[in-house]
Design brief:
Blueprint lengths: L1 E6 L3 E7 L5 E8 L5 H18 L7 E6 L2 E2 L6 E2 L11 H9 L4 E4 H12 L7 E7 L3 E7 L2 E2 L36 H5 L1 H12 L5 H9 L3 H25 L3 E5 L8 H9 L11 E4 L6 H7 L9
Parallel strand pairs: 1-4, 4-7, 8-11, 11-12
Antiparallel strand pairs: 1-2, 2-3, 5-6, 8-9, 9-10
């Protein structure tokens, strides 16, 4: 049995997986936002509840996904939107509280691990997992294992500039990171809504715009087309550097069905190759991918 914990800003979800990936238990609680000590306690309580639900089955490992990463330089959390975790030795504190080793990774890496292990990209050698939601994140998986990088920022494509910008896209919206024109400012849900507002004067959510585009409404369809063209440019740079077998989309905007046929056609112009064999696919495990990927940070034994 493996236990995965998805430590989010509003909820903490835990799952217990059997050796073949079957679910043995699942628990979800509200995150004690702003309270570091209570967050540690909540994670420990979830692990204990999951262990009880699985009975006497032996524990192969505990994996934890966080909305940030552990800095190799300091050993402390950095780049977390759950700001009360920043500057804390979260992995060491959780190991001490649990009394056993854990594996910890960025939540986008966990998403990518999940989909590469037994999801939409199962069996692929190199996978790029994309989160298109409130923010824009990414994770790289090679042969089932997350590629973290020397500074633990591998896959952070959302804070690169939007490539091949048009005059109307310069300098781009201001980003919370302190720069302007980041991919995240265009391709997040808020970015899609802001672009629609700038073009039409109408306030609408990303989900509403996508639904109306699916019905053929012209203004919404135009907004989604601009979004797809920008997504194609942004992913083309990933393909030119990484050349993955599969790109898996997650997050709320991954539910826009038009993306999967139209974005690969659009990225052909920008990919430096005579053909593009990369597959763009929708995630298989949906909202469960992050917590499942945390559990799969402890990979299955090949002889199991």
């Amino acid at each position: 049995m493996r236990i995965g914990i998805d430590l989010g800003g509003t909820k903490i979800e835990g799952i217990a997986l059997g050796g073949a990936g079957e679910e043995r238990g699942r628990v979800r609680v509200q995150t004690p936002a702003g309270d570091y000590a209570a967050t540690i306690t909540a994670v420990v309580d979830l692990v204990e509840r999951l262990c009880r639900s699985a009975g006497s089955e032996s524990l192969a490992g505990i994996g934890i996904g966080i909305p940030g990463t552990i800095s190799p330089a300091t050993g402390l959390v950095k780049n977390a939107n759950s700001t009360w975790l920043i500057g804390r030795p979260l992995d060491r504190d959780l190991e001490a509280a649990l009394g056993q080793p854990i594996r910890m990774a960025n939540d986008a890496n966990c998403f990518a691990v999940s989909e590469a292990t037994d999801g939409a990209a199962a069996g692929a050698h190199v996978v790029f997992g994309v989160i298109l939601g409130t923010g824009v994140g990414g994770g790289i998986v090679v042969d089932g294992r997350p590629l973290t990088g020397v500074d633990a920022i591998a896959g952070e494509w959302g804070h690169n500039p939007l490539p091949w910008p048009t005059d109307g896209e310069r300098p781009g919206p201001a980003c919370y990171c302190g720069l302007s024109g980041c991919i995240e400012t265009f391709l997040s849900g808020r970015g899609l809504a802001a672009d629609h507002r700038a073009a039409t004067g109408e306030d609408a959510s990303a989900a509403d715009i996508a639904e109306r585009a699916g019905r053929g409404e012209k203004a919404a369809r135009d907004t989604v087309h601009r979004y797809m063209e920008r997504l194609a440019r942004a992913l083309a740079t990933v393909i030119n550097i990484l050349d993955p077998e599969v790109i898996v989309l997650g997050g709320g905007l991954s539910n826009i069905g038009l993306l999967y046929a139209e974005v690969p056609a659009l990225w052909e112009r920008y990919v430096f190759s005579d053909r593009t064999a990369v597959r763009l696919v929708r995630n298989l495990h949906g909202d469960s991918s992050g917590v499942r990927g945390a559990a799969w940070l402890w990979p299955p034994q090949r002889n199991a």
